[in-house]
Each structure stands twice: as structure tokens, then as C-alpha cells.
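re the bet — no i am not wrong, look at it urself. input seq straight from the record:
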Amino acid sequence: MKKTFKILMISILFLGVGGLFAEPHDWYSDLTESNYWCYWLKPARPKIVSYHKMKHFEGVMQTCRDNCKNLGQCGRDEHCQHFKRGLQREDDEGDSTIAVMEKDGNAIGFVVYSTLKEYVSLLAVASQYYSQGYGAQLLSYVEEKIKKDGGSQVNLCIVRGNDKAAKFYKKQGYQGQSSSFAKKL
């Protein structure tokens, strides 16, 4: 008797008195259709945002270090220091734009490009996010920006011997050999 009374009281709390005597209702459909409860369970989707030095610099540099190590170029961290100076110069001079792929507030990838020159000078994604489509999203973002500004193609160079990058760009519709690639928009 006590157990039945507890179940009845809990039902009244959640459904109200009218809910006990109403026709059966598919509460699961309501929840999945509205998606309001699922919002809290879904992981945040990455988004592309403008680069802010104070917020993104460390994440961008960590992504650079990861990629340099994967390419075997960071023996003495010289390449990353060169990139760090270049990133600061690009940010200060303003002839290039830096966009960051952000997930849960952290930089997981970035692209440095110039719509005026129709050129991507660097695109990198943190190694733990490889093969998840983030590089393709960044590249597509740049292509849209260049096209919007009246550009007709995108040009880029990769480190010679980086077969993984060459394969990636070819998959995205770029043509080229060795280290130079281009795509007509």
C-alpha cells in the first residue's frame, strides 16, 4: 500500500492530477521532437571564428607544434618559432586573415589566408582531430570568403614530401604536384 501511494504521489508531482486521468501520451516523442533536453547531452559543435590573439594564440601554437612533430620538422623548435613570428606579423600587418576552428572554447585548427592574393598560407588541425572533416570545413570557409571577394581560384603550398596533405587537397578538388596546389572556384 505504501509503495502504491509513493508511486501515485510521484506521478502527481510529475504529471499533475489531470495527467493521471488523461489519455495515454507519448512523452518520448515530445522530448525528441523538441530537442530541448537533448541540447544538454550533445557535445558542442565546432565553429569557425575570427582569431583573437589573447584567446587563441596558445592553442594555435600547440596545433603548430603537433603538426611540426608529425612532419619531423621541430627538432629544435625552429620551425615553430619561425611560424610564431610569422603569425604575429600576419596578425599585426593585417594583409592576411586568421580564422580558428573552435570547439568548447578551444582552438582545434586554424587557417591563415589572403582573399586579395587568393592564397592559403597555412592550414592546420590538431592531430587528435584529424580525419573528422575540420580541415575540409576550414578550407571550404576560405574558398567561400575568396569567392565572395571576387576571387576565381585558391592557391596554396605544402611542405614538400607531405603526402598526407597532398592527398587531402586533391580530395578537396585541388590540382597540383609536389608542393603547389590550386583550385578554380
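see?? The beta strands are 47-50, 97-103, 106-114, 119-125, 153-157, 175-177, 180-184. told u. also The mean pLDDT is 79. so pay up
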